[in-house]
Design brief:
This protein is of the alpha+beta class and about 80 residues long. The chain is built from 2 helices and 3 strands; from the N terminus they run βααββ. It has a single domain, classed as Alpha-Beta Plaits (2-Layer Sandwich). The chain has helices at about 15-20, 25-35, and strands at about 5-10, 40-45, 50-60.
Length: about 80
């Protein structure tokens, strides 16, 4: 099962807004991720650096490469 790590920069000063929007996973995002074969997804926030580190596990046979183009994720 492939493990993928992503590093993302938050816009400057956006930590509080990020936390507000991501307090709980959106139900439609959970459904879409599961459909794409993602079995585990975690995001770690470094508030001081305003950086996110995301780690996901996905199935070999159902890669999640198209998730960034999803309307749910592009909200």
């Amino acid at each position: 099962m492939p493990r993928l790590a992503l590093k993302m920069h938050l816009n400057s000063g956006a930590v509080a807004e990020y936390q507000r929007r991501h307090k709980e996973i959106w139900p439609e995002l959970a459904t879409e991720s599961k459909t794409a074969g993602v079995s585990d997804y975690s995001i770690f926030l470094d508030e001081e650096e305003e950086m996110l580190l995301a780690v996901q596990l996905s199935e070999d046979t159902n890669p999640a490469d198209e998730l960034p183009d999803s309307p749910v994720i592009c909200k």
